[in-house]
Amino acid sequence: MENSEDCAVTVVPGEEKQRYLIPNGNGHSSANGALSGGGAAGAVTPPLVRASYPERETWTRQMDFIMSCVGFAVGLGNVWRFPYLCYKNGGGVFLIPYLIIGLLGGIPIFFLEIALGQFMKAGSINVWNIAPLFKGLGYSSMVIVFFCNTYYIMVLAWGFYYFVKSFSATLPWATCKNPWNSVDCIEFFRHDECHNGTIGNATFGNMTCEELANGRSPIIEFWENKVLNISEGLEYPGVMNWEVTLCLLATWVIVYFCVWKGVKSTGKIVYFTATFPYVVLIILLIRGVTLPGAYEGILYYLRPDWSKLKSAQVWIDAGTQIFFSYAIGLGALTALGSYNRFNNDCYKDALLLALINSGTSFFAGFVVFSILGFMAAEQGVHISQVAESGPGLAFIAYPKAVTLMPVSPLWAALFFFMLLLLGLDSQFVGVEGFITGILDLYPGKYYQRYRREIAVAVCCTFCFVVDLSMVTQGGMYVFQLFDYYSASGMTLLWQAFWECVVVSWVYGADRFMDDIARMIGYRPFPWIKWCWSVITPLVCMGIFFFHLVNYKPLTYNKTYVYPWWGEAVGWVLALSSMLCIPTTVVYKLFRAKGTFRERWDHLTKPVWGGHHLEYMSEDTDIKSLASLTPNSEDNKVILFESVM
User: Where does Na(+) bind (predicted)?
Assistant: First the structure.
């Protein structure tokens, strides 16, 4: 074919496409109309106008993607939440509902989000061009990940503060001789010696058991009086803690310089931030199992209680933990997948990442409970009295455990450094997902040389300003509002439900399975499609309604009840993401023209990107994939591009 003034023809060898082509099926359209409709036989495809801005960057090597996903999905929840849930819900028995829900809910959606990002080559908003009517799913995930980025980093700021304070001969939370300690502070509790009503103590003199019970640990006083300097309630914000504020600022600066250059730099940083925590976990496990009481602690972690399987709460806890630890519904997995090569085998990647995620959670339980068993033995109490979850484990239980070890500053520094790294990679990948979604909204004509660096700076600065409300004396109450409502189980379950419904019933599960086959060269196991279509949506809605029916008002430390207006703020945070989906659907249908059927057909027609045309051939279907050979004439794609 000869070139003309209007059109140029580019023949792309099959080797560049790695054998997999996308047929130009009816109903396919693109933003510039290049892929719209099936057309008559022999008709010339309308020219594709190529934008003048750079192509979407990809990972330098596929291991960069694997490590980024590991860093994002494997986070604090694997270390401080899963072991406690396992102990609370019947020990080893908890693995049964955990694995079942993981297979029926977690892995299918985890794979769906990665595959969707890879296929559409877009972030969490534009990826829903696959069904534009439901683009509210993208806005919803952006709201959720923004809230997560805002409050999650506070845990890192507290961990950074503890890490800095660990570099001292005597840990500041080990004694009662500090300005922030009260008169009720007691360094040692020996409840097993409290038999006859009194206990002799060389430091505090004779104390009754009642007085001993009312004593406060220096660890708790350091956390509440020094780090949080907590006020009476949400209505009393108080003053800012400048030391924690500086730690927060330093953490945001680290996140900025990890993200500002994109996945080329992020993919390298996660090699350290994602792997080093495993080194620390192994070191802590070796140390933990050598401590007295460690064996009893591990037994409590694993001892099966088969009666727990009859409890609905056990299954709900398993489902909630799966969705939390797999980081589903945040849009970040979609963003990471969008930087993959089009023909990357994301199916195997998803299965491998799910195995790493769940395996890390199980392994971390041995580390945590070996140390908690030692802590219970040292204090002479039952392990149920020292078993903690969440911040209680990180900032109360473990700091107490290291004070009982020789060379305690070393173990404290190691633990909080691991905590910092576990959270950091989750944080900057979350920011990466948010920035990717924002930048994908800009058309090419608005491309600027430093737009990414500027966008990341604006995002980090704005989040830091919001975070200032959490470093005040009432900041812990604000933190809990964000944690309980903005990225709670209900919002993530709502998001996951609609993702499955849109892909399976609006776009078509079989159709998307064909798209995946064109990317990876084979169809995934059929149970993936069954889960997307029926099983996973039912699991999501079942857990969602259980949460809704059993909703309890938020409290702090089981004593402080939030005021009505505080609870209202929490529901505003939750609904701000959940309502994005139905609001966008109603708005788009209202603005469209024609009958309802015509509006629906128009608004659910996929809008393809330019990269889809590169893999398009009108005469190719999914069954012909295996027959294509690298050197055959059929294995070429003709691209039309306008000559500007």
Answer: 71, 73-74, 78, 325, 357, 422, 425-426
